[in-house]
Amino acid sequence: MQQNTSSLQDPVTLLQHYQDVCNRYDIDAAVALFADDGSIEIHGTAYRGQTVLRAAHECDMGSQTQVTFSDYTIEGDRVSCTFITCDVLDRAVGLDGRHMHAEFTIRDGRILRFLSLPADTQEHQRHSAAKHAFHTWAQAHYPDEVAKGANFDYEAGASLSRVVQAWLNRHNRDD
Fold this sequence. Notes:
By secondary structure, the protein is an alpha+beta fold. It has helices at 11-23, 27-32, 50-62, 88-92, 121-141, 143-148, 154-168; strands spanning 34-42, 45-48, 66-75, 78-86, 98-107, 110-117. Helices cover 45% and strands 29% of the residues. A hairpin with a 2-residue loop joins strand 1 (34-42) and strand 2. The chain starts with 10 loop residues before the first helix and ends in a 7-residue tail after the last helix.
């Protein structure tokens, strides 16, 4: 779905289009929606610039992540919304994703800043409990693959997908 530039001036339309291209893993289109000096901020770290933004979206592709933005509040050039991210591990352990909030700063119809706010304590505990068995098993059986998760690139995401697949298939082996 190609959006014309004037329709992307509306912040909600822009973010809905961003969600769509992210979930299709159209990395070129996703990165093009960011300002040249745009950033994604997660856990206090800003990932800035086109090359890094490309790597971040490739990480999502590798981990088969799907995103949802909803419940928008617009104040000037800032948009706050509910943000759900659901990757291959979430689906493997039966979770519907990590429910958080995000704040976007929009400049000239492009994303200047995408701030992913941390999940609340209850959401964090829900994920920790659901994923504990996987993390324990993965660290014991695939420590090198687990270490790749510290990066924010395609290989980090793909590594998660490989380990999740091995974990799901573990009943076929004597692990």
